Amino acid sequence: MDKESKRTTIYDIAKLANVSPSAVSSVLNGTWEKRRISRKLFERVMQIAEEQGYSVNVPASLLRRERSNIVGMIVPKYDNRYFGEIAEQFEAMARARGFFPVVTCTQRDPDLEFQAAKELISYQAECLISTGTTDPDRISAFCTASSVQSINLDLPGKNAPSVISDNHAAALELTQLILDRCAQDLDWIGPLRFVGGRLSDHNTAARLAGFMAAHRDRGISVPETHIMSTGYSAESAAKVLENCVPEGPTGLFVNSTISLEGIVRWHSKLESNSELVRYGCFDWDPFGSFLPGNVGMIEQDVTTMLTKAFELIGNPNSTNQQILVPCKLRVF
To answer: May I ask the CATH architecture of the domain 167-299?
Structure first.
């Protein structure tokens, strides 16, 4: 076997560093301080390992440890500010607590989600956080069978504790804001249109309930045709409104920033009546404040949600509870 194809071992590093293989192993697995190995030797071994392109055999290493310290997270999307922020803060919080974070994106595909869960468990993840997964109970059941803790984030499940936004209360508040601005700016009382999301999705259903409650409080009836829950995509949001050319005041409740992209496309094509549209979005992006017609957005409290999730890790008393985290209304 030539040099380029031969995998570097701890014995190669030990020979180059002129130390025992057990000392090299202690440096590489993080127990060097317990063995009272000097920092100078630690740095020398790490430098040699890097120069030799050494990589740890993860499965073999895990078999020799009592704990892996791995915490896994499944997310549906990276190209969404909300989920991107969750992934970024999760990694920072995990490292601050002595965990090694592993994040995988599954594109809202239930089969990919389950496969990702199995892979993370095969690497002995101590806890798996399912964020916005389409079938969290399937994943939780597999985790339970594998004696691995699971936590649901963003979307709830029945078989594990869930940390989610208070979608109903935030949607009610946002709807009230849009209706107030329609009355103030356009001298119009509604009803609004609800655009985006899937009614089978817990969050969409909770937001729609808050949307309807805000209308009921004002004695406003909402026609079924005003519920335009056509999925999470900019294209579907733009398409569902393409034949909706406002001849008078129009108000929209937009169910995500993904749908908001489609709303902005639609709004940009309107001509003289574009100023008659007011809308708000359940999701947050700083650029939203610059969009014409946008009166406010809901910012989900990612930091608090993740803090609550980490408090559940390793807690033997955690039940299949649902923890609601209040959102923040951003008014423009």
So the answer is: 3-Layer(aba) Sandwich (3.40)
Task: Give the count of beta carbons closer than 10 Å to the beta carbon of residue 214.
Answer: 23
Question: In 66-133, which residue ranges form alpha helices assigned H by DSSP?
Answer: 81-96, 110-122
CATH class of the structural domain 10-56: mainly alpha
How does pLDDT run across 175-225, given as a tens digit for each residue?
999 999 999 999 999 999 999 999 999 999 999 999 999 999 999 999 999
Q: What DSSP designation does 76 have? A: S
pLDDT at res. 57:
58
CA–centroid distance for 158 within its chain:
19
* 193 three-state secondary structure: strand
The domain defined by 70-165+302-325 folds into: Rossmann fold (3.40.50)
Per-chain mean pLDDT for the chain: 90
Give the residue ranges of DSSP H helices in the chain. Answer: 10-17, 21-29, 39-51, 58-63, 81-96, 110-122, 136-145, 167-186, 202-217, 234-240, 257-269, 302-312
Q: 0.70 cut: is pTM over it?
A: yes
**Distance between CA 192 and CA 24 in Å, rounded?**
66
d(CA 191, CA 272): 22
What is the distance between the alpha carbons of residues 122 and 194, in angstroms, rounded to a whole number? 42
